[in-house]
# Entry
Amino acid sequence: MIRTNALLDRLLGRINGPLEPGRSPPFWLLVVAAVVVLALLPTFLSRYELLNFSNFLSNVFLALGLCLIWGFGGILSLGQSAFLGLGGYAYGIVGINLIEIHGNTWLALLAGLGFPVIVAAALGWMMFYARLKGVYVAILMLVVTLLIETFLNQTAGQGWFIGNAHLGGNNGLGRFSGVIREPPSLTLGFGAETMVVFKGKTQAFYYLVLGLGVLCYLGLRAFVNSRIGHVLVAIREDPDRTEALGYDVRALQLSVFCLSALLASMSGILYVSWGNFITPNVFGVFYNILPVIWVAVAGRKSLTATIVGTVFLVWLSQKLAIQGDIAFVVLGFILLAGMMLLPEGVVTGLGERIGRVFDRLGIGRHGARHGR
Amino acid sequence: MGAEPLIATRGLSKRFGGVQAVSEADLSLGAGQLRCIIGPNGAGKSTLFKLLLGSLRPDIGTIHFDGRDVTRLEAHRRAHLGIGVKFQNFAVYAELTVRHNLFLPLSHQHRGRAVEREIDDLLARLNLAGTAEKIAGSLAHGQKQWLAIGMALAMKPKLLLLDEPTAGMGPEETEATVRLIRTVNAEGVAAIVVEHDMAFVRQLGAPVTVLHYGRVFAEGTLAEIERHEEVRRIYLGATKLERPPRFKNRQT
# Structure
């Protein structure tokens, strides 16, 4: 018993730390319960509901990337969805060309993850080594993403083929482009017997997203509570001082920017795997502002809040969207009210209040101040 | 002097648009020495400070530190060579805990439990025992300044750059700060203190460099400086040389 406790302490020690709220045993119990419920969900939900829910969940990576660079690193990017799009397009284009030859999408996956990171490295190098700050990074990223959108929108002509993949202008890559080839779903495995096709309507896809989500959540918790995480938060508070304390601020900003692009690209690849299409819309203003709203309303300084908030808000916008245009007015009011009442984030704010109630009841005193 | 100075600048100049903030400044300081840099508003103290720590590059001139040309070296590399910095205002991470503040400089050399031990040691030395879990912004003003000096010390620098370490302090806190700087200096750490407050400079009793229009105007003991007629005129604001240029860099 003592040995298991020590082991648990060591494991939790890595992912529990002062920089991410939610450290108490009740909090972790809640997390485990949530994962169990999510894992059982396919047995309760209809096929259509599962299809939808898989899509909601796959947005979480985009939001986590933004939470990391903005909430923890202090760099707001208004073009985060560009990396989602680049990942999706790169995956789709390579996938269309190689699926018949290889029978799997390993290379496409690699391209989808790698290409956005290379672009992020180039952009980040220019921005951070020119010591661009604050709002300039945000605006530059918005300009970049709108440029990509404009470019892709004019690729409808027959000249815009990359191998077998037609870029398809504003119809995008996929079934609307008049050309039959659409990007394949993730097809991964080793040898023909173990090959799994992660189509959006399958349970395999759902469990893939869920598994990746849990892994990323725990991994990022460990990351933000590590030494690098402490330095990252210090850079958010004051880059000059952090530099004078002997840290290479620009190199770290660049690395974390690339990591956030990697996370966004996961959402992009999953999106293409889910629906077998992608359009230049994902580079537009709407899709780039959405994650900012999710993260801001949920609580940008918390990974947990970001996940909970994102899934809830995506679900809510879809529920409301069925009601027609008035829904967006309602949604707007909800977001405004949330941000005014709980400026640190709705999920973070509520979590802290619940944590205080727990503290008063004397449960989970280990968890220190913020338990959710 | 025989030994090579710890830090030496030669012909250091920096211009912002039409303003020559620092002009051909020659400054040198031996290991373990103490120096105050004073000067009226806009004399170029802050610019010189930033040139020394590495957040600005000079237009011309060189900086040698510990036998090495560091003119083009970035601030974070200079920090590892042994230049510790305490900035002017808000010199701590006000939103973060005291522990987090001290963790940053200490974690270069220590890991795990050793960092915690070092933090506790340093807190005791800074008269801040028991404040580790407090948010740094909630500390009293003087405590914040000590914490800031502690952060600079935590990297075991050979040279400490202090920008107005007693700004906004009461007499008692100022005295405690003087004692702290003296103790650190007695352990062999050189320090360059940019200061406005003449009472503090007097208490510290270190040699003084006077900056004026970005130039090294005078150097000597405080007594010598105070006898210096030109310096007195500058400080009395009675100088009729020319209209003082306007500076972009903020100074208090």
